[in-house]
Write a structure and sequence with these properties.
Blueprint lengths: L1 H29 L4 E7 L5 E3 L2 E6 L2 E6 L9 E12 L5 E6 L2 E4 L11 H20 L4 H10 L7 H9 L10 H15 L5 H18 L4 H18 L6 H15 L7 H20 L10 H22 L1 E3 L2 H8 L2 H18 L6 H26 L5 E3 L14 H18 L3 H6 L3 H4 L2
Length: 438
């Protein structure tokens, strides 16, 4: 009964917050097509591709030339024609295409009132600089993506290869990154401080890493779940994966209701559910496949859950994404570890007698990175690896997939999972997903 009241209260608050978002949405829609001037702070890490860059300014996406480059948190005045793209009758995406941009003369590094955020982003830029000095492209940007979740400098061609092969999630910080950060901090400090103090500092480290990774929905969701799981250890309560996911989702939607239509949020939640409920069912099916068996079962589990969302939003069916992911995912933890080592030695020994150490670690990273790049580029360059669609149409004029179709798909999938999840040990296996989430 208590859970019912919690859900009802949450629904009431969420509905109120969502109606407020609708009102703000309506105000922007009224200004669509008009010349507007907006003063605000860059609210996302700018992504540099080709001869341009894009970043968020509140609820708007700004597309502009590559130079001058802008920084996350920098205050700017933007003037241009507001454009909108209707996603559904409640939600639209707003953009300003190549507007006039003037930096506001203020403390540009003071991010949303908190100087510590500026320090974190400054550290991120220094780490990216280390990678750029030691590694060529696209290896440098790929390593920044694996370690920091950065898509800032990915070459356009390689970015398209990532998207085509279904491996774009590699450059999005997620639960795997979070668990490495918090586990490392807790284990390193547990012998020095009390357990609860080490966990508290681990949670602080996760918060800092989340900000450094751009605070995208996937990393925020993972950070909340990971922090709650470790906090549960302090109070002596074992975290249930489904409860942790519900708490993360409910909290994020209360803070920002329009996330319900955010593709990154939807993909993150769907992939997590796949790892929780489908991966245990596939355990043992692919384990006999040498080298890629475990990655294949996890990839298939996530793909089963997310592919309707991918096709609705990106109009592309990657036929070999499971194969490509299975070939490269084993490299992610290796690159995550060596990328962190490279960042550390690069910041400490950027010059002088120890520069050979930085180059040595860089060569180790390069070996794994170039292997991953070659696999992704080769599959991305083959026309038969993906099935492109246009506006939900394959070869005829009839729509091939929409949200009603996707809803039916998830209903059928839920029934199948429910029927096969009767063995208690399989249910408990879902709780282990936090250790291997990707």
């Amino acid at each position: 009964m208590k859970a019912v009241w919690i859900v009802l209260i949450w629904l009431a608050v969420f509905s109120f917050r969502l109606s407020s978002s609708f009102q703000a949405e309506g105000n922007l829609r009224e200004k669509s097509g008009n010349y507007v001037t907006v003063v605000g702070r860059v609210s996302s890490e700018p992504i540099l591709q080709g001869g341009g860059q894009r970043f968020n300014l509140g609820n708007m996406t700004v597309y502009t030339k590559l130079y001058p480059q802008y920084e996350y948190g920098q205050e700017v005045q933007v003037s241009g024609t507001l454009q909108s793209k209707v996603v559904n009758k409640w939600y639209s995406r707003f953009s300003l295409m190549y507007p006039s941009i003037k930096p506001v003369k203020s403390d540009n590094l003071k991010i949303i009132g908190f100087n510590w955020k500026a320090k974190i982003m400054e550290l991120r830029r220094k780490i990216e600089s280390v990678y750029n000095q030691v590694l060529p492209e696209p290896e440098a940007s790929l390593l920044a993506g694996v370690v920091l979740g950065s898509k800032r400098g990915l070459p356009r061609g390689f970015y398209e290869d990532l998207r085509t092969t279904g491996t774009l999630h590699i450059v999005v910080a997620s639960g795997f990154n979070v668990m490495i950060v918090i586990s490392f901090v807790v284990k390193a400090l547990a012998g020095i401080f009390k357990r609860w103090q080490a966990v508290f500092m681990g949670i602080l480290a996760v918060i800092g890493y989340t900000v450094m990774a751009g605070a995208e929905p996937a990393i925020v969701r993972a950070a909340i779940m990971g922090s709650l799981a470790f906090f549960g250890q302090i109070i002596g309560r074992k975290g249930d994966s489904m409860r942790l996911l519900l708490m993360a989702v409910m909290g994020m939607l209360l803070y920002k209701p329009i996330l319900v239509w955010d593709v990154g949020f939807q993909l993150s939640v769907a992939a997590t559910l796949g790892l929780m409920f489908i991966s245990p069912l596939l355990k043992g099916v692919f384990d006999k496949i040498i080298f890629v068996g475990e990655n294949m079962s996890e990839t298939i589990s996530a793909q089963i859950m997310v592919w309707p969302i991918l096709m609705i939003y990106f109009n592309n069916l990657s036929l070999f994404s499971v194969v490509v992911n299975s070939l490269v995912l084993w490299l992610v933890p290796v690159l995550m570890t060596w990328g962190a080592i490279l960042a550390l030695v690069g910041l400490l020994f950027s010059g002088g007698w120890f520069s050979f150490l930085v180059k040595g670690v860089g060569w180790i990273c390069y070996a794994g990175l170039t292997m991953m790049v070659r696999v992704i580029e080769w599959f991305g360059g083959q026309a038969w690896t993906s099935w492109p669609m246009k506006e939900g149409v394959v070869t005829s004029s009839e729509p091939w997939i929409n949200w009603w179709w996707a809803a039916g798909y998830y209903v059928v999938l839920s029934i199948i999972i429910w029927r096969y999840m009767k063995v208690p040990s399989q249910r408990r296996a879902g709780a282990t997903f936090m250790r291997k989430e990707r």
